């Protein structure tokens, strides 16, 4: 039983930001009912790679959910949505602003159905403002917020982050915002509308950049593998590749000089005496360090740094990361059985609760896998479900409705 056991979430989102949010809630025990289009379902189902015809992209972020396939432009389909919404605590959607109103599933419509509903909208630019009508994607947001202008090597073309940082960030932000709204609801009985924007959620992350800009007017530029404020806190070349060196404060710098590279004289060197001086002379410092570090393999230096209490580590590729024994022991790679793909690995749950741990209870659902089950839970009999299927209001997996007991 997870900490969110009993929370019912109606998930009308698709692709990544919304589904990542609802996966986090589901991992922690919430019951998530995923609403998918009758034609094709969640768009991420059309994104490869595939195993036995099923999308592994969809598989990775839709575990622990049940899928119902509804045609929200059909009267019977929208009525089924309303029935489920009346029992839900939370609704999550990521349509472009205005679409939910045209479908009559916007916050005001849902609030009339259930006064205390928590309704979370995730969009490109938010529900208000001059850009609210625009659509956006992760990379557009990375460009819009300035992230791409400060990522990569100096004087290189703009570079994106290695992952969909704003889609995932929006999902995480939405998850904690929903939980905060739920705590408020438990205290007061009040629901509310939560409005999140891909183009905004990342701006508060630019802490060092904001510190420099608002204090000095400094516009942040790419720093490659170097930290923006501390030095040496960066990628360092060794004899057999690169490692990450984290001598990010004066104490670790001095430990590095004395116990790792055996250069105690650098502590009083006028070029390197303070962090500000080390940043000012970073090119020279990097050359001096790499003259030493390239004499041995990276594992030698990682071990030596660890012994000296200087944070350091390898720069892994993804395969090396997911095979790391530390991550494996902490169950950050897990395996689940899927009815079509068979046993498949996925990323685990990072939050470790002592009393109410999250769990991977089921694989991502097939398209419409639970349509019949969910509708029966809400009072529909099999004859009505069959009729709705024939009218295009719903879709069940393999487009077959059992006729047992009809």
Summarize the structure.
The protein is α/β, with parallel strands linked by helices. The chain is built from 17 helices and 14 strands. β9 (about 235-240) and β10 form a beta hairpin.
Notable traits:
CoA-Trfase_III_dom3_sf, CoA transferase, CoA-transferase activity, transferase, CoA-transferase_III_domain, Rossmann fold, 17 helices, 406 residues, alpha/beta, 7-stranded mixed beta sheet
Individual helix count: 17
Structural classification:
alpha/beta
Overall 3D shape: elongated
- Residue windows where pLDDT falls under 50 for at least 5 positions: 399-406
Overall average pLDDT: 96
Q: How many strand elements?
A: 14
- For the largest beta sheet, what order do the strands appear in spatially? 8-7-6-1-2-5-14
- Going by CATH, what is the homologous superfamily of the largest domain? Crotonobetainyl-coa:carnitine coa-transferase, domain 1
Report the CATH C-level class of the largest domain.
Alpha Beta
- The fraction of residues in strands falls at 15-25%
Strand count, sense and barrel status of the largest sheet are: 7 strands, mixed
Give the domain tally.
2
Helix content percent band: 25-40%
Q: What is the gyration radius calculated from CA atoms?
A: 26 Å
CATH architecture of the largest domain: 3-Layer(aba) Sandwich
The separation of the N and C termini measures 36 Å
Within the CATH hierarchy, at the fold level, what is the topology of the largest domain? Rossmann fold
Pfam family, one: CoA_transf_3
GO molecular function: CoA-transferase activity
Protein name: CoA transferase
Organism: Salicibibacter cibi
């Amino acid at each position: 039983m997870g900490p969110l056991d009993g929370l019912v979430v109606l998930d009308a989102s698709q692709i990544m930001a919304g589904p990542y949010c609802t996966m986090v809630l589901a991992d922690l025990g919430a019951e998530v009912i995923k609403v998918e289009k009758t034609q094709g379902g969640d768009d991420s189902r059309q994104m490869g790679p595939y195993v036995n015809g099923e999308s592994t992209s969809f598989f990775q972020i839709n575990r622990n959910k049940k899928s119902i396939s509804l045609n929200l432009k059909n009267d019977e389909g929208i009525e089924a949505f309303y029935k489920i919404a009346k029992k839900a605590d939370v609704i999550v959607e990521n349509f472009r602003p205005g679409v939910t109103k045209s479908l009559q599933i916007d916050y005001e419509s849902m609030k009339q159905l259930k006064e205390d509903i928590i309704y979370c909208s995730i969009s490109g630019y938010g529900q208000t403002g001059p850009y609210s009508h625009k659509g956006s994607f992760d990379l557009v947001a990375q460009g819009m917020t300035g992230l791409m202008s400060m990522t990569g090597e100096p004087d290189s073309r703009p570079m994106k982050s290695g992952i969909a940082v704003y889609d995932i960030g929006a999902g995480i932000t939405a998850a904690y915002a929903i939980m905060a709204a739920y705590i408020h609801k438990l205290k007061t009985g009040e629901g509310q509308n939560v409005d999140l924007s891909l183009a905004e959620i990342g701006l508060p992350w630019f802490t060092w950049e904001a510190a420099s800009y608002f204090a000095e007017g400094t516009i942040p530029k790419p720093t490659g593998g170097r930290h923006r404020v501390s030095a040496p806190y960066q990628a360092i070349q060794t004899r057999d590749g690169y490692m990450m060196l984290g001598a990010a404060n004066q104490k670790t710098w001095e430990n590095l000089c004395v116990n790792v590279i055996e250069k105690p004289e650098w502590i009083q060197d006028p070029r390197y005496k303070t962090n500000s001086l080390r940043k000012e002379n970073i090119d020279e410092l990097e050359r001096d360090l790499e003259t030493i570090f390239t004499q041995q393999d990276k594992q030698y230096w990682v071990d030596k740094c660890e012994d000296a209490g200087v944070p350091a580590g390898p720069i892994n590729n993804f395969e090396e990361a997911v095979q790391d024994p530390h991550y494996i022991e902490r169950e950050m790679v897990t395996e689940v059985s899927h009815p079509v793909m068979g046993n498949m690995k996925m990323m685990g749950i990072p939050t470790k609760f002592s009393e109410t741990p999250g769990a991977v209870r089921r694989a991502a659902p097939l398209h419409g896998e639970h349509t019949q089950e969910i509708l029966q839970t809400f009072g529909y009999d099999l004859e009505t479900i069959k009729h709705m299927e024939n009218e295009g209001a719903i879709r069940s997996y393999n487009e077959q409705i059992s006729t047992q007991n009809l």
